[in-house]
Amino acid sequence: MSGFVNEQRRELLQQILDLRTRYLTVVLEDIYQTQNASAVVRSAECLGLREIHIIENRNEYQINPKVVKGSSKWIKIKRYNNSNNNTENCLASLKQKEYKIVAMTLNEDAILLDQLSLEDKTALCFGSEDTGLSSIANKMTDYHIKVPMCGFTQSFNISVSAGIALYSLSDKLRRSTNNWQLESNEKDDLYLEWLVKSTPNGRLLLKNFLEKVVIN
Fold first, then answer.
1. Overall domain count for the chain
2. Residues of 143-158 as b/e, b for ≥16 C-beta within 10 angstroms?
3. Is the dihedral of CA 178, 183, 184, 188 positive or negative?
4. What is the Cα Rg of the chain in Å?
5. pTM score, two decimals?
6. In a shared domain, residues 119 and 210
7. Do 150 and 53 sit in the same domain of this protein?
8. Comparing C-alpha atoms, which of 206, 22, 17 is closest to residue 121?
């Protein structure tokens, strides 16, 4: 596939690939305003996250193309919408993969954003615009964090809150000695995926190549 992509593009893919991470991820639970969820998807991709998790208990997420600006093409979106326990299934799966579940909140007893340790893989959770995170999500949370505010208005829009938190934590992560980059096999798989997406008729070309390999 690399033969169908020019050298400059291949170098760009490799540069971005080296900055991708699964160490930090985002969970959105029942966000009902498409522009908010799409803005978080865009921020997550811009800051190098490999994937984002979207829980759809009451509200189905529809990509807003004017907001994502193509970012949804380059980040894996995992949806949880086929059971009565979508939140529990999502967070339990992340815990099984050794993620700490971190909830953004306005609670007074929450720790400040810059006090959060990144010794463990971290899943940053945001709840619905009207009700916040569900009781199930809060029960499964390991830490509650908040962004300090200095004005009379004591809350940010969810997309702003996510943008601030993701920038702060991703910068802190990359300055750390943590093993935050993708494994070599993950990089290989993702590089091929991106080559396909960067090539006109990429999927058809890959399919034809694989068929030839099988025949031979």
1. 2
2. bbbbbeeeeeeeebeb
3. negative
4. 19
5. 0.90
6. no
7. yes
8. 22
